[in-house]
From TrEMBL:
Cupin type-1 domain ranges (all copies): 58-207
Coiled coil ranges: none
UniProt entry tagged with the keyword Ubl conjugation: no
Family: Belongs to the germin family.
Signal peptide (from-to): 1-19
Name of the protein in question: Germin-like protein
Major subcellular site: secreted
InterPro entries: Cupin_1, Germin, Germin_Mn-BS, RmlC-like_jellyroll, RmlC_Cupin_sf
Matching Gene3D superfamilies: Jelly Rolls (2.60.120.10)
Keywords assigned: Apoplast, Manganese, Metal-binding, Secreted, Signal
Pfam families listed in its UniProt record: Cupin_1
Origin superkingdom: Eukaryota
Length: 215
């Protein structure tokens, strides 16, 4: 069989899957947050209107309020929210604050890997892989932990003092899906019989959990 034909057959039977933000085609593209145009990304402002301070971000100077049922707060640094200079750079940031006993509940980021740097305090963290193996760790200030793309993970303040961390994700729109609210707070609601069978609990308990999520 001719070599060219072999190469064509090989190319036809191999599928390469890419899962990442598109590469930028300009030096930068500061997002125009006032534009009504919807793209896979965000419209750029005129480069002549930006300067060095455009690329600085001061949104992490103050701690988020942890006065809530979870005892945690997430402050975003996202291109489409409050840090337009990140547009097309393939990154998103977040400041995470935790009261003692505070929890960022189990969730996933379908489009990004997350790297967490613990600035202050201590955390118990972990993720679960697709074989249901759990990878826990106790972090102290200065430690870094990576949550692989798309896997269920959480962070819990296991100390007696407030903690805070900085997260970097390799997508400007990583997405977040909280496991509990996605299942028990979905609209329209998922049938009680489905959730009862999935979790091995009575349908009456499913109803109670749903009410906790406003469903």
């Amino acid at each position: 069989m001719p070599l060219l034909l072999l190469l064509l057959l090989a190319a036809a039977t191999v599928t390469v899957v890419m899962a990442a933000d598109a590469d930028p085609v300009d030096d930068f593209c500061v997002a125009d947050l006032t534009s009504p145009i919807i793209l896979n990304g965000l419209v750029c402002v005129n480069p002549a209107t930006v300067n060095g301070s455009t690329f600085a971000f001061t949104g992490f100077e103050n701690a988020g309020s942890t006065s809530n049922s979870l005892g945690s707060a997430v402050t975003p640094g996202f291109a489409g929210v409050n840090y337009p200079a990140l547009n097309t750079q393939g990154l998103a940031l977040a400041r995470l604050d935790y009261a003692p006993g505070g929890l960022v509940p189990p969730h996933t980021h379908p489009r990004a890997t997350e790297v967490l740097y613990l600035v202050k305090g201590q955390l118990f963290v972990g993720f679960v892989d697709t074989a249901d193996k759990f990878y826990p760790a106790y972090l102290k200030a200065g430690d870094v932990y990576v949550f692989p793309r798309g896997l269920v993970h959480f962070q819990f303040n296991s100390g007696n003092t407030p903690a805070f961390a900085i997260a970097v994700l390799n997508s400007q729109n990583p997405g977040v899906q909280l496991i509990a609210s996605a299942l028990f707070g979905a609209t329209p609601t998922i049938e009680d019989t489905v959730l009862a069978k999935a979790f091995g609990i009575p349908a009456s308990e499913v109803d109670i959990i749903k009410k906790g999520f406003g469903a």
